[in-house]
Design brief:
single chain, 8-stranded mixed beta sheet, polyphosphate kinase like, 10-stranded mixed beta sheet, alpha/beta, 3 domains, 21 helices, 21% strand
């Protein structure tokens, strides 16, 4: 049994009084943060740089182009929309860089224009030709021979024409509603009888394949964009009319959901109403092809009530999210080499090759699993499935932020409830863009007898927690899982995350209290092995950072290591600045947004910031403090953002097994090494990619190295 003092994170009962002197704050310059929105665009530029990298398999490059497009859509639908909503409604616009919202929006527009043009160029001049060299061509209608055109004509009339809905605009037909993110054709036609020019809108059906496969030619697979096929059959849609011109366009709408929870009696009904309203949010971006004439553009600007600054004139094709379809082409030679996740060593079958007893394995000691290198199915999923079937299990409690209704996780909870166990599912129905899906399977859980709760008013429940109560020899034992990622089998294959399994009584008591408070009214209590937001997590981290600062001032070795998706919170950043000023080595490993300026003399010269992007999405959060030789290391769900620390229920758990602490430390060593491929952040906010050494050799791919490390551990176990 580990001593209680080791488990205690050192946050005293009076930590509400923790503060930093005004004198310490005075040592920090005024303009010490990078703009978060521009930093996000820099993150998406790093995604784009992967698409531009000729060393990557070409279908993976196409996939990164699609990811860039999808990311940018969400950025406009949420972040840009949120800024504009605040301006329109007169709300204060939070900015930590001392500039007006109008200036921020102007910078966003300029940078987004630049990136979208670079994105289009990457497709036209780099990825598309590379695909052609590999035997996959995306062709234009004008290049097709007569046989191909005849086959496509038949395909159009049998598979496309019946679902098209051309909408005229004239005195009897008002300008139609344009749905967000839909791809459309703006068509100008002339009535042959009257000579009058008219306008029509045609939506490209989203349920059809975006790239239509043609007959192979000389071993080359060929595809025709759907909008190109439709554009060359417009005469069939407007018989008796002369088609004068046509151009593609695409609209992005505000899809940010805003609910005043304290003013509604039924959260689900309010959310459903808000989701309906979201479909009709105001326009915030209009993408058009670069050949669109001014007459058509003026009509769109007028009817959509959008400004010229919000227009993005781009070379076609628009909406490169369609490349997700091409990226799934079955060409193993053009993809990353396949990786099969291994079963975590602790959960591997015994000599008789029977399935491992998950509970027996956890009783032997804490188990740390690393997805997707280690299997989600044979760890987290197996844990819950065994709990559902085990007659000794009395109760299961779990948070669910993003998953799917057909998920084996959801099915395990249903099976447990139907078997007569007490089952509590805390479902976060406000998880952005998963709201409707979450409502559906929350109701499915309720029908099966699961106790479904929706968290606390005003807070999203983002923590990743599962608690199983099992009776053993007349005593109740708590088996806990605290993770950094969602309980989602699908994303677990592409998201990098950690999860900790433990039978430690203190963690069990912490989770029991936390679940009781989540299904009750408030998060008030402090915990022993957990740090929990919104009340205590930021304070706990600030105290741990400040302890490193004091250690450095006393001449002791001091270091802070933080891995997050986003680093935005000013209090955390200022604490890291003060630690750096005292001589603390600070290493920040961030996937996305970073408002911290590293390497500024007198402020942050001891801070290093790295970013790693690759085949897997780096999603885990790690917080490590040297603590004068007694490392304190946490993993959990929280990013360093206001929403995570102030408006969400988040949880970090302390990792105490020395082997696990060493594993996490070694991962940081690899990520921060100059021999590892990564992006380095400069004091000016520029991210510079370091992927080759001075001799032009590729640097270490951290994710490939992590795969190898997991496989070595499995082989070592097999030898024993």
């Amino acid at each position: 049994m580990i001593e209680q003092e080791v488990l205690d994170p050192g946050i005293d009962a009076d930590d509400d009084d923790f503060d930093v002197s005004e004198e310490a704050d005075a040592l920090l310059p005024e303009h010490r943060y990078l703009d978060r929105e521009v930093s996000w665009l820099s993150f998406n530029q790093r995604v784009l740089e992967l698409a531009e990298d000729p060393n990557l398999p070409v279908l993976e490059r196409a996939n990164f182009l699609a990811i860039f497009a999808s990311n940018l859509d969400e950025f406009f639908m949420v972040r840009v929309a949120g800024l504009k909503r605040r301006i329109v409604t007169g709300l204060a616009v939070p900015t930590n860089v001392g500039r007006s919202a109008a200036d921020v929006l102007s910078d966003i527009s300029a940078e987004a224009h630049r990136l979208q043009l670079r994105h289009a160029e990457a497709w036209t001049s780099a990825v598309k030709p590379a695909l052609a060299d590999a035997g996959i061509q995306v062709v234009a209608w004008d290049t097709l021979g007569e046989d191909d055109r005849e086959r496509m004509h038949d395909y159009f009339h049998s598979r496309v024409f019946p679902v098209l809905m051309p909408l005229a605009v004239d005195p009897a037909h008002p300008f139609p509603y344009i749905s967000g993110l839909s791809l459309n054709l703006a068509i100008r036609i002339r009535n042959a009888r009257t000579g009058r020019q008219e306008f029509a809108r045609l939506k490209v059906p989203p349920m059809l394949p975006r790239f239509v496969e043609l007959e192979p030619q000389d071993g080359v697979v060929r595809y025709l964009p759907l909008e190109d096929l439709i554009s060359n059959h417009l005469d069939d849609l407007f018989p008796g009319m002369e088609v004068l011109d046509h151009h593609a366009f695409r609209l992005t709408r505000n899809e940010d959901v805003v609910i005043e929870e304290d003013e509604t009696e039924n959260l689900i009904q309010a959310l459903e109403a808000e989701l309906l309203r979201r479909r009709f949010g105001p326009p915030i971006r209009l993408e058009i092809t670069d050949d669109m004439d001014e007459l058509t553009l003026d009509l769109l600007l007028k009817e959509l009530d959008i400004t010229a600054q919000e227009v993005y004139r781009l070379p076609g094709p628009l909406d490169l999210r369609g490349l997700f379809d091409l990226a799934r082409i079955d060409r193993p030679d053009l993809h990353y080499k396949p990786h099969l996740p291994t079963t975590p060593v602790a959960f591997q079958p015994g000599d008789n090759n029977e399935r491992a007893d998950i509970f027996a394995s956890i009783r032997k000691g804490d188990v740390l699993v690393h997805h997707p290198y280690e299997s989600f199915a044979t760890s987290v999923q197996a844990f819950l499935e065994q709990a559902a079937k085990d007659p000794h299990v009395l109760a299961i409690k779990q948070t669910l932020y993003r998953t799917s209704g057909d998920s084996p996780i959801v099915q395990a909870l249903i099976d447990a409830a139907e078997a007569g166990k007490q089952v509590l599912a805390l479902v976060e129905i406000k998880a952005r863009f998963d709201e409707a899906n979450n409502i559906l399977w929350a109701r499915k859980l309720e029908k099966a007898g699961v106790h479904v709760v929706y968290g606390l008013v005003g807070l999203k429940t983002h923590c990743k927690l599962a608690l199983v109560i099992r009776e053993e020899n007349g005593v109740l034992r708590s088996y806990s899982h605290v993770g950094t990622g969602n309980y989602n089998p699908k994303t677990s294959r592409i998201y990098e995350d950690f999860g900790l399994f433990t039978v430690d009584d203190q963690v069990g008591r912490d989770l029991t209290r936390l679940f009781n408070e989540l299904s009750g009214y408030a998060i008030e209590k402090k915990f022993k092995r957990l740090l929990v937001a919104p009340l205590h997590l930021r304070k706990g981290l600030l105290r741990l950072i400040d302890k490193e600062r004091h250690n450095a001032q006393e001449g002791k070795p001091a270091r802070v290591r933080i891995k997050v998706n986003s680093m935005v919170d000013e209090q955390i950043i200022d604490a890291l600045y003060r630690a750096s000023q005292a001589g603390v080595t600070v290493e920040v490993w961030v996937r996305g947004i970073c408002s911290l300026k590293p390497g500024v003399p007198g402020m942050s010269e001891n801070i290093t910031v790295r970013s790693i992007l690759g085949r897997y999405l780096e999603h885990s959060r790690i917080f490590a403090f040297d603590n004068d030789g007694d490392p304190h290391v946490y993993i959990g769900s929280a990013d360093m953002m206001h929403r995570n620390l102030d408006r969400r229920v988040e949880a970090l758990v302390r990792v105490v097994d020395p082997a696990h602490v060493k594993e996490l430390s070694s991962l940081f060593d690899l990520a921060m090494s100059d021999k590892t491929s990564s992006w380095h952040l400069g004091a000016d906010g520029e991210w510079v990619r370091h992927s080759t050494d001075a001799e032009g050799k590729l640097l270490v791919d951290m994710q490939d190295r992590s795969m190898s490390a997991v496989q070595r551990r499995r082989r070592a176990r097999a030898v024993r």
